[in-house]
Each structure stands twice: as structure tokens, then as C-alpha cells.
Design a protein that fits this description.
It is a single chain. With 354 residues, the protein is α/β, with parallel strands linked by helices. The protein folds into two domains: 2-161 and 325-353, Rossmann fold; 163-323, Glycogen Phosphorylase B (Rossmann fold, 3-Layer(aba) Sandwich), CATH 3.40.50. The protein has twelve helices and 13 strands. It has helices spanning 20-34, 71-84, 124-130, 188-198, 213-220, 237-245, 262-269, 282-285, 298-306, 313-323, 326-340, 344-353; strands at residues 2-6, 38-44, 52-57, 91-94, 111-115, 136-138, 152-155, 175-181, 202-207, 229-231, 247-252, 274-276, 292-294. The chain has a seven-stranded parallel beta sheet with strand order 3-2-1-4-5-6-7. The chain has a six-stranded parallel beta sheet with strand order 10-9-8-11-12-13, sandwiched between helices. The chain is globular and about 60 Å long. InterPro entries: Glyco_trans_1, Glyco_trans_4-like_N. Residues 175-311 form the Glycosyl transferase family domain. This is Glycosyltransferase family 4 protein.
């Protein structure tokens, strides 16, 4: 099958540091190539991939030192290139939210759009109703709640390459981990409270966006004076196995409808359980008492830490392999591709062979 994967241009593929959507696009693309499909990836020129690369920009937007740049202009130029080449592909798989809709309305039936972000925002439901022909994929069932009547054709959980993360059966660090982004909805303040009240070190490996800079300076930086708290900053994939694998647990104390939460399965890949609040996709991703604990308060999180020894880190890794591999993710997407092409027999055959 000839497949176009269209990625956002904000980060490299795969990201050098933070970047959930781009990381998923990378793992999906490489898995499809491994399965023998002819894949073209539309992304920034600094992308690393075994697929055919069509560069849409000389480098990822966040890595571009230019003080003034237009993310809208760069994405519109990329989409125009995809439109010009659309007839070369059986399926066009977009990861750019709804930005492409006005360009591809005439061939919507040959497109698939994975929505990677939150949908509880004003104007979004009206916009998706305006272009109802585009088949949509959710990354969790929870994500659909804000737009239950949209043109959903499937839910595909994220997956990661099994070899990209190193399993650690016995953590060496004796610390708790927070990984991701510093923002109010991610609740790093909760993570700090959990760790300090438990008397355990907390390592924070996180990005601080410019939009969250004032929150970081006002609410979080004063908390970093505690000797139990270490702020590392952003880390890349090369450092994640050691950072997550040597942690007693990942803290995921979110306070928003997280569409998926990639960091939870990154931790699972290392054998590390997660302690998380039951927001958004968390109950779909975590299996309470098996791959982590789902809690509703800081005291409950502290109690969960005392129960971490009951969890089998080998079983945590095993559940990652069974549920969240890149191969499984690619297989689910292939079923949807075949269905959109009107060839359900191939989809059924693939499902039977899986």
C-alpha cells in the first residue's frame, strides 16, 4: 500500500527532546515500513526515517533560531505539496488536526485524520461539523466525549517500538519521576507534594513552554528549593530508559482530560509503574493494581507508593508489549486504511492473522 504520513512541523521526527505527536508518527511510520508498505513522510528536513522523506521545511519550527517565523505559513505550504501529490497515494494519513480539511474535501474518503489533542475547546465542535466527511481516529475513547457525534471510524491507542526503551527489573535510583511538560494541567506541584510528603526524592525532567513560563516562575520554581526535588529540564529518548527505568514510579497527577498520555506507556516499557489521577485516558491506559495505581488525592498517592513493591515490573513491561507496541498500533491503522479503501476482506484477514 502507498501511504502518506503527514506530520506537524513543530518538532523533528522523531523529536530530539519533547514531542508526543511527532514521536508517535515516527514509531508508526517505521512500523509500516518494516511491514513492507511504501510510505512517504511529509515532515521537516531534519527528520530521521527509513520512509521516503518529503521535506516541508528546512528544520523543525522549535529548533529554528529565527526570531520571527510563521507556523501557519509553513504548514499551509506543506499541505499544498501534499495536495499536489495526493494521487500518488492510496491513503493520506494526517496528524495536523483539522488544518487540511479545506484542501482535501474532494478526496476526504481517502484520508484518515488522527486527532492528537484535547477537544474540549470552544469552536472545535462547530468546525468538525462543517467538514463531516473526513474519517477521524481518536487516541482514546475518553477523547471522544467532547464530540461524540463526529465522524469517528476508530480508536487507536499509541504504540512504541519495543526496542526503543530498555527494561529495568530493579530500579537503582530510589526516586520518583515526573516527565513531560511544566503546565498547570500537568500538576507538577502535586508531584512535588507527593514526593516531599513521602520523604522521597523527585526528579523532574520537563519542558517549559514560553506560554507556561510565568506559571513556572510563580508556582513551581519556589518549590524547587526543597532538597528532595531536582529539576533536570528536557531530556531526549536516549536518556529516557535510564531516567524512567531507575525510578520507583512515574507520577502522573494530571488535572485535565488527557487524550492519551504517552509518558505512561514509556514508563511501562521500562517496567516502571505509574501513579496517576483518573482523568481523561488514564483508566484506559493504566490497569490499576497491575501497571500502576489510579488515585484521587495526594494521601492516596502516598499510600500507593507504599504498595509499589506488590507490582511485578516484568508484568508491567509485558502489558506494554501486549497492548502498546508500534506493530500493534500500525496493525490497527492498516485495518482502518483497508476499510476506507472498501476492502474489508483484507482488514479481516489481517485481524485474523494478528
Amino acid at each position: 500500500m502507498k501511504i502518506a504520513q503527514i506530520a506537524p512541523l513543530y518538532e523533528t521526527i522523531p523529536p530530539r527532546l519533547y514531542g508526543g505527536t511527532e514521536r508517535v508518527v515516527s514509531h508508526l511510520t517505521e512500523a509500516l515500513v518494516e511491514m513492507g508498505h511504501d510510505v512517504t513522510l511529509f515532515a521537516s528536513a531534519d527528520t530521521q526515517t527509513r520512509a521516503r522523506l518529503h521535506p516541508g521545511r528546512e528544520c523543525a519550527l522549535r529548533l529554528d533560531p529565527a526570531p520571527l517565523k510563521s507556523d501557519l505559513a509553513s504548514h499551509l505550504s506543506l499541505l499544498d505539496e501534499v495536495r499536489r501529490r495526493a494521487d500518488e497515494f492510496d491513503i493520506l494519513h494526517f496528524h495536523t488536526d483539522l488544518l487540511h480539511f479545506p484542501f482535501f474535501e474532494g478526496i476526504a474518503q481517502r484520508t484518515l485524520t488522527t486527532l492528537h489533542g484535547r477537544l474540549d475547546m470552544k469552536d472545535l465542535p462547530d468546525a468538525y461539523r462543517r467538514w463531516p466527511r473526513f474519517p477521524l481516529v481518536s487516541i482514546s475513547r475518553s477523547q471522544r466525549q467532547q464530540m461524540p457525534d463526529a465522524n469517528w471510524c476508530g480508536t487507536v491507542h499509541h504504540g512504541l517500538d519495543l526496542s526503543a526503551y530498555r527494561f529495568q527489573p530493579r530500579p537503582q535510583g530510589g526516586y520518583l519521576a515526573f516527565l513531560g511538560r511544566i503546565s498547570p494541567e500537568k500538576r507538577p506541584d502535586r508531584a512535588i507534594a507527593i514526593a516531599t510528603q513521602s520523604g522521597l526524592p523527585l526528579k523532574i525532567a520537563a519542558k517549559v513552554d514560553q506560554s507556561d513560563r510565568s506559571y513556572f516562575e510563580r508556582e513551581i520554581r519556589p518549590l524547587l528549593d526543597n532538597p528532595l526535588v531536582e529539576f533536570i529540564g528536557e531530556i531526549g529518548d536516549a536518556d529516557k530508559s535510564e531516567f524512567l527505568g531507575n525510578a520507583l514510579a512515574l507520577l502522573f497527577p494530571i488535572d485535565w482530560p488527557e487524550p492519551f498520555g504517552l509518558v505512561m506507556i514509556e514508563a511501562m516499557a521500562c517496567g516502571t509503574p505509574t501513579i496517576a489521577w483518573p482523568c481523561g485516558s488514564v483508566p484506559e491506559v493504566l490497569e490499576d493494581g497491575l501497571t500502576g495505581f489510579i488515585v484521587k488525592s495526594v494521601p492516596q498517592a502516598r499510600a500507593a507508593i507504599a504498595r509499589l513493591s506488590r507490582l511485578d515490573r516484568r508484568q508491567v513491561r509485558r502489558r506494554f508489549e501486549q497492548r502498546f507496541s508500534a506493530e500493534a498500533m500500525a496493525g490497527h491503522y492498516l485495518e482502518l486504511y483497508w476499510q476506507l479503501l472498501g476492502k474489508p476482506a483484507q482488514a479481516a484477514l489481517r485481524k485474523k492473522m494478528a
